[in-house]
Amino acid sequence: MEGDKWMNLLITGGAGYIGSHTVVRLLESGYDVVIVDNYMNSKPEVIKRIERITEKRIKVYEVDLRDSVALEQVFCENHFDGVIHFAGLKAVGESVDFPLDYYDNNVVGTLVLLKVMEKCQVQNIVFSSSATVYGDKNQSPLVETMPLSTTNPYGTTKWMIEEMIKDVTYANPNWSAVNLRYFNPIGAHPSGMIGEDPNGIPNNLMPYITQVAIGKRDYLSVFGNDYDTIDGTGVRDYIHVMDLAEGHLKAFDYTLKHKGCHVFNLGTGKGHSVLEVIRFFEKATKTQIPYQIEKRRPGDIATCYASVNKAEKDLKWKAKFDMFKMCEDAWRWQSKNPNGFE
Ligand code: NAD
Ligand code: WQD
After folding, report:
1. Which of 179, 201, 297, 327 to mutate to test the pocket of ligand 2 (most atoms within 8 A of CB)?
2. Domains defined for the chain, CATH in brackets
3. Please, which residues have CB within 8 angstroms of residue 109's CB and are 6 or more apart in sequence?
């Protein structure tokens, strides 16, 4: 918070996985929030759970960001000190099959949001970008100044949005923006009341592991064991979603003190292989994860982890939770909610 000043933030996509955890941290820290979400990848039950955790009521608008009239109405009915923008589609493979849906939802949605913000003189934004914008040509640790490239339409939407936001801050010096490049968010709120609830078969490693542990899937397919890594399996920088949530509070605070456009990695700076994650999970949860080695997944790279120096120095933010805690919390969420939010 800026001194004792009361702050009200618009959270787009606040019913989603990362948004819901960030909303909890914001409410606990004394911010007021208003959520805009069209529930295309989340459920209204999330809001009830956030309200139970925080014992606060939340104002929610079921609005699609691309509906400029409805979005402007939200801005007219509320005073906002800034926006944290999570709303978007996020499945890499789906973006290859349906690129126009991704450009429409992610790029057009953000365009409408930025226009409405400009019109209503709300000029602080924190945006959910992704480590995917580093592409497949840079060596880890990945540094914010490295050249960007993408390997799929989802990644391209993130890159395009970063550029759009940067241009807005160049054109109007009143704007403050932070683009956060998340690495691999996993884990859940320690209460086990909110967490990641993918539709259908999970694409990502941790939700797949938790579904094997709960008995919904027979075994985990490990995509390749012939990479040039510690044990041949892919290495990633997994970050606890509560650490990520905290990073958004720091990033919003940063927009209050710094004009212009700034970029930060949010990761731990450490890489773990798929086999290491399985071992941590088994130890933390006393479960067994049967797995089979299969061929590489197209588009995957061997290793991806963050340089965290810039976030530590400028945002004064550092991830606190280790892989053991990430596994424990992911498992508490899954075991208490075998069918997610249903
Ligand atoms: P999520 O799908 O759980 O949450 C996104 C939320 O946005 C959902 O509640 C969805 O209903 C909502 N939404 C989508 N399009 C909308 C629209 N047009 N109008 C209103 N609401 C809309 O995803 P998440 O994992 O919480 O990710 C949040 C953001 O972070 C996304 O932009 C994603 O691309 C980015 N990101 C996620 C990861 C990850 O691994 N989870 C990694 C890097 C970046
Ligand atoms: C992690 C590792 C897989 C599933 C994706 C997006 C990225 C970002 C985060 C949004 C890899 C291996 C996985 C499985 C496996 N999202 N794996 N079996 O691919 O690093 O990143 O999510 O911005 O843009 O690309 O995450 O969790 O899918 O994979 O062996 O069933 O686990 O090969 O090495 P990824 P992931």
Report:
1. 297
2. 7-189+237-267+307-319 (3.40.50.720)
3. 64, 65, 66, 87, 88
